[in-house]
Amino acid sequence: MNTTGDLEESDVLFESSDEVMVESQVYWWQDKHRPRKPKYFNRVHTEYEWKIYSHMHYEYDNPPSKIVKGYKFSLLYLDLIDSEAPTYTTEKDGESAETCIIRFHAGPPYEDIAFRILDKEWDCSAKKGFKCTFEKGILQRNTTGLFKRVPTFYENSEPWLSREEGEGTGLL
Fold first, then answer.
1. Do 141 and 134 meet the contact criterion of CB atoms below 8 Å apart?
2. Which end of the chain is more exposed for a tag (fewer CB within 10 A), N or C?
3. What are the Cα distances from residue 59, in Å, to 87, 122, 170?
4. Tens digit of pLDDT for each residue in 27-70?
């Protein structure tokens, strides 16, 4: 896992258009400190997904499209006044059912910052690459492991079985 800021082959940088605009707020501390957004270095971890279909229709010279496998967020809160660690929450996205908003909140003098990510259930085990630390003014949240695998059941996965009887009734 690379956290030094160097890009791996499978990483893609967040663009400035990936940041979600957060409504402006009035802070009790803005008389003393100018509110500002934190600096950040975010990456999207992508990989090829080689399933049976991909093996049949693609080659290593002509690979399938990459899919998102995780995110790496590094937010710099170097001038944080409070000693509390920043927090993050995920919210539903009103624009798309496939994405959600991850919002990072810290104390003065920083404003909230939010990003649009895929709305999937994360595997939050350290074995799969989940990491959320706040050290020396840097919040790191890495989810470089796989998403949790949710079994997909199709409506007609076994069309020759009757659901009421539970026995074979011949092909439909």
1. no
2. C
3. 43, 29, 38
4. 656 655 677 889 999 888 888 888 888 878 888 888 888 888 88
